[in-house]
From TrEMBL:
Transmembrane segments: none annotated. InterPro entries: PRTase-like, PRTase_dom. This is Protein-L-isoaspartate O-methyltransferase. Pfam families: Pribosyltran. Its EC number is 2.1.1.77. The keyword Isomerase does not apply. GO terms for biological process: methylation. It is an enzyme of class 2 (transferase). Residues 8-192 form the Phosphoribosyltransferase domain. The lineage of its organism: Bacteria, Pseudomonadati, Pseudomonadota, Betaproteobacteria, Burkholderiales. Keywords: Methyltransferase, Transferase. The keyword Calcium does not apply. One of its GO terms (molecular function) is protein-L-isoaspartate (D-aspartate) O-methyltransferase activity. Gene3D superfamilies: 3.40.50.2020, PRTase-like (3.30.1310.20).
Length: 208
């Protein structure tokens, strides 16, 4: 199994990203799982840390299967198979509204009293703990691109080859440690893939 836990995956990613140390990068983690990873990477690279808030849109009857994703502005990415999965426009509108409401709640909880760190003109490293469809990462990369960063690096421990191909137009660089042809779920590549709680996210971001 490639990774013991998220801390192990983050340490390996930090080594792969070592060339960005000293350039004052901005590490943006996708909550919740990637935030403790982002903290480890940010410390290793002497980088700033924040979150990029996106939510996947779950398929009808199967919320864990992403048919797309939405960012905080409401911009929505839909996978090519969204309608095949039974998601008509009315369902997508309802699901988008529900996830936007959750994003507002998370922003208030995670970064109370301050604005998100600005990505304009900076080298930005967007971190997740692994990708399946890539929908959430595409929404995250799009959201950051709108801020006109100098460069966007997508950094993940594991993702299938077809997902990495989908990401290429959205990032200037993609760093992925493992890209197996046989891929079922991100958690299969971790010995410990315990759920990260909101309190841990808040603790990682406190004082940053």
């Amino acid at each position: 199994m490639p990774f013991i836990d998220r801390a192990d995956a983050a340490a390996q990613l930090a080594r792969a990203l070592a060339g960005h140390a000293g350039k004052r990068p901005l590490v943006l983690a996708v909550p919740r799982g990637a935030v403790p990873m982002g903290a480890i990477i940010a410390d290793a690279l002497s980088a700033d840390l924040d979150v990029v808030l996106v939510r996947k849109l779950g398929a009808p009857g199967n919320p864990e299967f992403a048919i797309g994703a939405v960012d905080e502005t409401g911009w929505t990415y839909l996978t090519p198979y969204a309608t095949v999965a039974g998601a008509d426009s009315a369902y997508i509108d309802r699901e988008r509204a529900a996830q936007l409401d959750l994003l507002r709640q998370r922003r208030a909880a995670y970064t109370p009293g301050r604005d998100p760190l600005c990505a304009t003109g900076r080298q930005v490293i967007v971190v997740d703990d692994g990708l399946a469809t890539g929908a959430s990462m595409i929404a995250a990369l799009h959201a950051i691109r709108e801020q006109k960063p100098a460069r966007i690096i997508c950094a993940v421990p594991v993702a299938p080859p077809q997902t990495l191909a989908l990401l290429q137009p959205y990032a200037d660089e993609v760093v992925c440690l493992e890209s197996p042809d046989r891929f079922r779920a991100v958690g299969d590549f971790y010995r410990d893939f315990s759920q990260v709680k909101d309190a841990e996210v808040v603790a990682c971001l406190a004082g940053r």
